[in-house]
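Exercise 7. Given the components listed, write out the predicted structure of the assembled complex. Treat all entries as one system.
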Amino acid sequence: MKNSFDEKILEEASDWLKVNQKVVLATVIQTWGSSPRQVGSRMIVNEKGDFSGSVSGGCVESAVVRECIGIIKDNKPFKKIEFKVSNESAWEVGLACGGEIAVYLEQII
Amino acid sequence: MKKQLLDQIIKKKKNKDEFAIIINITNGKSCIYETNKPIDKNFEKHLEQIKNYFEKKKNGIIENTDIFVETYIRPIKVIIVGAVHISQYLVDYAKSLNFEISIIDPRGYFATEQRFPDLKIINKWPEEAFKEIETNENSALIALTHDPKIDDPALQHALKNKFYYIGALGSKKTHENRCKRLKEAGFSEEEINLIHGPIGIKLGGKSAPEIALSIIAQLVAETYKK
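Answer.
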């Protein structure tokens, strides 16, 4: 059995919207291999790059923040991004654990 | 996602409804799915598959489609007997782990709003209190008074209703005596052995937050064993 171990990110998104921040919701929609967070894990990002929640164990959050700011700037409603295993290049964003994840970004409008 | 949909989702979560968030990841459309309610026209084509995912409490993209389903289930009900110091910390842990807590304590001086803000405490004896709470095999009991007058009737209720987790605070000796009383009350050894006593996993700590942590850890572990 599972409990609804919910992290209250949607509630936080609603609080951010109430103070007129732009909010992008990022949701893990697919995982392959040993990914750190399960499907349904969430984070939110505002136009300043403040964020809450997580979609990995800290591996790809910075890239997600960049992508979210991008879709606010371009006024795009949604976008799907994928992250794969990181290689040797230290500056490349990737999942050190060897998994892959797909994250769905959507602006709350 | 529209703000209006977000508000609806939050409301449903607050009401502890069972529902699913459905997103088409190719066109960005989203809606709420609930049993016995018509689904948004844009998703009618996938209704059967969505239903199937929902019934299995699954999260993810439905195979060979662009439809993402996220299922929300009702939180597990945890009944604590005893509005004691440990309970104050259990309430805090339970909030972040999303258990739904009810506290029973017939002793008015423990069960005060000042000690437990934002929580409904049932200020009655367990036999009466359980009439107000719907319980089943997905419920959990944490008995903390170590007073047989209060704990025993609650333990009996939990055993009869096949709670998936039953724990009782008290030393090994207290627990032995408790087992004897339950045996005399007609419960089998097999049933009595279902009670986690002394309650909690071994952490070594003796303070109220440490004991609360050991109890909540055991509860989470038992939840996933089920």
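Discussion: Chain B is about 40% helix and 20% strand. Chain B touches chain A through 32 residues (CB under 8 Å).
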